[in-house]
Write a structure and sequence with these properties.
With 209 residues, this protein is of the alpha/beta class. The chain is 40% helix and 17% strand. Bound molecules: zinc ion.
Length: 209
């Protein structure tokens, strides 16, 4: 069946590099050789928050695709870069992995949560359990609010779920993309209310400095 379907699929969806869009020979590769050569881990880090890639380049293109389509194989590939970045940071081995939750309406609209997909594969690579520890108290309607109205909202858009035992644990918090440090800081603050030993935040791309 596979051998019959493959030429049809290749005809309908010719393989392309997810960064430069040039045609490729196989669907197996996410990036062409040239773009693969451009893939470089970022060295952006601020305290216990770090990113794997800069905001542009092939890494960002893969993330863009993940956020659009929710592709499992891209999530798996990006999780391996998160692991490499974590290794370069010399952070301690986490006891548990968690992720930045999306507003539930956005999850419903997309049908997937990019940060959860990444955290799932990161948890497998680390061989550490994945927990959903945070609630998002943020609603999509808030996106269009003026700066002044936003200031009236509760200070933290995230809260720790009930009955979580985080005491003395090292937690690795995964996000796909951070626009500002606020989201990551608010999640770390919410997790800290459970008295973990430490929380480290790792994102594929983002502006944290
Ligand atoms: Zn390319």
């Amino acid at each position: 069946m596979q051998s019959v379907l493959h030429p049809i699929l290749t005809f309908l969806y010719p393989p392309q590099c997810y960064h430069c869009q040039l045609p490729q020979e196989s669907h197996q590769h996410l990036l062409c050789k040239d773009c693969l050569g451009l893939l470089q881990l970022s060295n952006v880090k601020l305290g216990r928050i770090a990113t794997a890639f800069e905001l542009d380049g092939p890494g960002a293109s893969l993330l863009h695709r993940l956020r659009k389509k929710g592709s499992e194989h891209i999530a798996e590939a990006l999780a391996s870069f998160l692991l490499m970045r974590w290794d370069s940071l010399k952070w301690p081995m986490p006891d548990m992995i968690t992720y930045v939750p999306s507003p539930w309406l956005r999850c419903l609209d997309r049908g997937f949560t990019p940060s959860l997909l990444l955290a799932k594969y990161t948890s497998r690579l680390f061989d550490r359990p994945l927990y959903s520890l945070l609630h998002s108290n943020y609603h999509l309607a808030q996106v269009n609010l003026s700066h002044a109205r936003r200031k009236e909202l509760p200070l933290n858009c995230f809260s720790l779920k009930k009955n979580q035992n985080l005491q003395g644990k090292v937690i690795l918090l995964i996000d796909d993309l951070i626009g500002t440090r606020t989201t990551m800081n608010q999640c770390i603050e919410a997790l800290s209310s459970g008295f973990p030993k430490a929380v480290y935040g790792l994102t594929v791309c983002g502006a944290i400095d």
